[in-house]
Amino acid sequence: MKRQKRDKMTRAHSKGYQAGISGRSKENCPFQQNDARSQWLGGWREAVEDRHLGLSVK
Fold first, then answer.
1. I want to staple 40 with a disulfide (CB 3.0 to 4.6 A). Which of 2, 16, 20, 49 is the partner?
2. How many CB atoms lie within 10 A of CB 32?
3. Could you read off the pLDDT of 32-55 as tens digits, one per residue?
4. Where is this region: Disordered (predicted)?
């Protein structure tokens, strides 16, 4: 059970990062559960910081 939950949270973070790096708004978060939403927003914030530093996804 823990493995599935961790994988889901990792996936949420990754999807948030992808959304942030592509310039999408944080209002587009598809998750309603607090844990997954938090992970998605964390990934989104990380990507926005990376974009401001001039980094991009390869």
1. 16
2. 7
3. 999 999 999 999 999 999 998 886
4. 1-31
The residue type of 17 is: Y
Q: Note the pTM of the prediction, 2 decimals.
A: 0.81
Phi and psi at residue 24, to the nearest 5°? -75, 155
Q: Taking the CA of residue 33 as centre, how many other CA atoms within 13 Å lie in the half-sphere pointing to its CB?
A: 7
Size (the chain), residues: 58
Give 19-33 pLDDT, tens digit per residue. Answer: 999 999 999 999 999
- CB proximity list for 47: less than 8 A, separation 6 or greater: 16, 17, 18, 19, 20, 21
Instruction: Read off the tokens for 5.
Output: 């939950």
Tokens for 44, please give them. 């989104």
